[in-house]
Write a structure and sequence with these properties.
By secondary structure, the chain is α/β, with parallel strands linked by helices. It is built from eight helices and nine strands.
Length: about 230
């Protein structure tokens, strides 16, 4: 059975003038346990909206999103929050680190929403990512590449079964982007987590055996997406 199964997914937005804009209409998408898949697509095509629905951040209007057989669309907001904390890790393009806390604390807090927060695992992840001398540094004391590594560690700190990555290398130079991608994929393999990544970067996309074109997946009429 697929870990993630999406079927007949619909999401509409209402524009300021009252016009209904369909931004997502996905007939079918599947992701197996432990599989790593990249979705390519241009900015504003709805990729982030798709990830947010899979993560339970946004509610779908119609359709089915099943995670290990559980219907996510049927959950209320509180239940979706619990699902996300229990099952998922999320890597944001803008990192979203907590500025008042150290690298280690950021990662521990990330795990706290899932498996309960494991300081030993948090430190292990940061050491694996080459940040053993930056554990007590706050985000503003880290380079962009180091901040990204903290974000990667945080996404895996709760031992998620699936990691969602939204343009995770978008703020990095080409060399750092390749390194970050290799680290992310390696961490997912080590923990047995599936990886669903969206990007428009050909170098990033080329690292994946399975690529999906979002313009083919999403049959919605083109519109402005958030």
């Amino acid at each position: 059975m697929d870990l993630l199964h999406v079927e007949n997914l619909i999401k509409d937005y209402v524009s300021p003038d009252g016009e209904v804009q369909r931004v997502l209409e996905i007939a079918n998408f599947n992701l197996a346990a432990g599989e790593q898949v990249a979705i390519r697509g241009s900015s504003g095509s709805g990729k982030t909206t798709f990830l947010h629905i899979v993560a339970g951040i946004l509610a779908a209007d119609r359709g089915s999103v099943r995670f290990d057989g559980e219907e996510i669309v049927a959950l209320n907001e509180s239940q979706r929050d619990q699902y996300r904390a229990r099952e998922l890790g999320y890597v944001f393009q803008s990192f979203h680190l907590l500025g008042a806390y150290s690298a280690l604390e950021n990662v521990i807090f990330g795990g706290a929403f899932g498996s309960g927060g494991d300081p030993a695992l948090a430190e292990e992840l940061l050491v694996t990512l080459g940040l053993e001398h930056r554990l007590k540094h706050r985000p503003h004391q880290l380079s962009i590449g180091q901040q990204q590594r903290v974000a990667l560690a945080r996404a895996l700190a709760g031992r998620p079964r699936m990691v969602l990555a939204d343009e995770p290398t978008g703020n990095l130079d080409p060399t750092a982007a390749v390194e970050a991608l290799e680290l992310l994929r390696g961490l997912c393999r080590n923990q047995g987590a599936a990886l669903l990544l969206v990007s428009h970067d050909p170098t990033v996309l080329g690292a994946f055996d399975r690529q999906e074109d979002f313009a083919v997946l999403n049959q919605a009429v083109a519109g402005v997406t958030p």
